[in-house]
Amino acid sequence: MSKSMAAWWTGMDWRYRLGGITGVVLLAAALVYGRLALARAEGPVRLQVYAFSTQEEVLTQGIFPAFEAAWEEETGRELTIDGVFGASGTLAGQINLGAPADVALFSHAQHVTYLRLGRRVRHDTAAVPVGETPIVIVTRPGNPHGIATYADLAGPGIRLLHADPNNSGAGQWAVLAEYGSAWLETGDPAAAAAQLEAVWRNVRLLAASARSAMTLFELGAGDALVTYEQDARRAQERGTPIEIVVPPHTIVAQHVALIVDDNVTLVERPAAEAFIAYLQSEAGQEILARYHLRPAGNGQQAFPPLDSPFTVDTLGGWSAAYADVIETLWAGQIEPQLDLDPAEE
Q1: Long-range contacts for 217-221 (Cβ within 8 Å, ≥24 apart)?
Q2: pTM to 2 decimal places
């Protein structure tokens, strides 16, 4: 260092000298981090996907291996996807408590709201529709009780099995189906509430999720089950002797997926974004359809037509439907009066 430069440096205020040193250190650290990130970006990637229970087979047997192969062919990098499955509401709670999900598939959009409130996703992060399925009634072979509508579930002697609306998205969709069908037929909220209350007087068993409810039904519990068409048709494929009843007025459950911003890293994000895109792609939708999930939107040609379906928007959207029907009516008035079998309490 020249004498003039040394004199200039010595004469500088110490704060400026410290700032200059700090800047150099930060720049060097950024360069090192950038090299490390680049090196990691060229290595293997692992994604954690949390999804509601009925999607386990289609994801682990269909979507995961197909997307892993497509990603590796496109990028030349190894990809491993780990799946965690359970009730949609339970998964949302776990993610809010720190579970390491990079991508989440929820049974409905209200559970995305939980993540926004928990600041696990940005408010501008969009949840994308990935598929839909109507809510149906599953009965024993021959439909011994002659069930054709949700109102028929209130008939004498019927033992109804149900996914728990406290945690299960399927349970919540079913409540909206049981309420909304009467509301569409009468236009009277009081009549709809009366039908929901009458149906739930026959509920004897609660299961933690849609899949656990179907498992219990396959084992002989209950006379009828309200669940997703997708899971009912999968049960038929497994050889389970059941009958599927599609009421004329039933709700269509709309499923969504999103990236969990608080968890996904810079290295993982490209794979997570590509995974979301794959779910919506023609290839992804074909796999979902093979497992009886109807395409999001209007692509229903390969599926049995529905008579008079409705959506949650018919009931004012998820915020209104959740507050009015699930929280106020079901949780506030019906749940405290449940008469469940002792083994399931």
Answers
A1: 217/138, 217/161, 217/242, 221/161
A2: 0.87
